[in-house]
Amino acid sequence: MEIADKKVLLTGATGGIGRSIAGMLAAAGGKLTLSGRSSEALEDLASTLPGQGHAVLAADLGQPGAALELAAGAGEVDILVANAALPSTGRITDLTDEQVARMLRINLEAPILLAQALLPGMLERGQGKLIMIGSLAGKAGSPRSSIYNATKFGLRGFVFGLAADLAGSPVGTTLVAPGFVREAGMFADSGADAPPGLGTTTPEKVADAVLKAVDSNRVEIAVAPIVQRTMAHVGLMSPHISHRVQSGSAGQNAADSLAQGQTDKR
Ligand SMILES: NC(=O)c1ccc[n+]([C@@H]2O[C@H](COP(=O)([O-])OP(=O)(O)OC[C@H]3O[C@@H](n4cnc5c(N)ncnc54)[C@H](OP(=O)(O)O)[C@@H]3O)[C@@H](O)[C@H]2O)c1
């Protein structure tokens, strides 16, 4: 599908990766509806984007019913990019039940409900694309990330099952799964270092993968250096090996430092 003149709903538009996705989709001629919690931040972002006809729609996806309200408010959408998420790090015993419920709602329930609400219109109009921003944390577990892992494993399963349902239809779905992203976003904001030797990627590379996903039949596009993608795949194929590697003090300390740096985003 061509992006020019298509209506795009982008959640998490104000985040480190969302800003790059917004910029690249707008440069490709998309008409964006930008979503996040702050109207002011969304208006500021919209004013910097190339092209005309962008809109903003504030929504707190942590609230019950907000995803459906957002879908209804956005109207006819050709491309959904479900990108909003919380880092959801920390030991489960250090999180309140309200925090856990909000993490599950924002990271997993909201993307599913947005897809469910927007899909019938896409099928009726004979075109559409549902892009979900997952993570390599949807392939391999890591310490202090049990809730984040749960949501990203869940989103990965949702896209794969939905893709199978949509086979032969004019609507497609793709999971874009980044590894550690430097320069901006929830990992960079934490101030933590990536585990040695795994490398990092950039918000621009994630945005570029989103652009490719619009016109691709692939169900999953991973965005990370080869070593990191391989390690994630090992974690998927052999959780026991991955668990042993991450159980050492280096892995535990790195996970503590990441969770500590993300407590403000719980
Ligand atoms: N950064 C990485 O290293 C990395 C790696 C793998 C995958 N990812 C994935 O990439 C996506 C973008 O992450 P990022 O790094 O750009 O994160 P980020 O900078 O923390 O941005 C998160 C975005 O989600 C929005 N958001 C948070 N809570 C919300 C709520 N209650 N309702 C509505 N929107 C809410 C934020 O908007 P407001 O705060 O303005 O409301 C913001 O726009 C996520 O799905 C993440 O899991 C990131």
Taking pLDDT < 50 over at least 5 consecutive residues as the criterion, the unreliable ranges are none
The largest beta-sheet arranges its strands as 3-2-1-4-5-6-7
User: For this structure, what is the CATH class?
Assistant: Alpha Beta
What is the third-level CATH name, the topology? Answer: Rossmann fold
Encode the helix/strand succession as letters.
EHEHEHEHEHEHHEHHH
The rough form would be described as: globular
CATH architecture, please? 3-Layer(aba) Sandwich
Mean pLDDT: 96
Bound molecules: NADP nicotinamide-adenine-dinucleotide phosphate
Question: Strand content of the residues, in percent?
Answer: 5-15%
Short description, anyone?
The protein has 266 residues and is an alpha/beta fold.
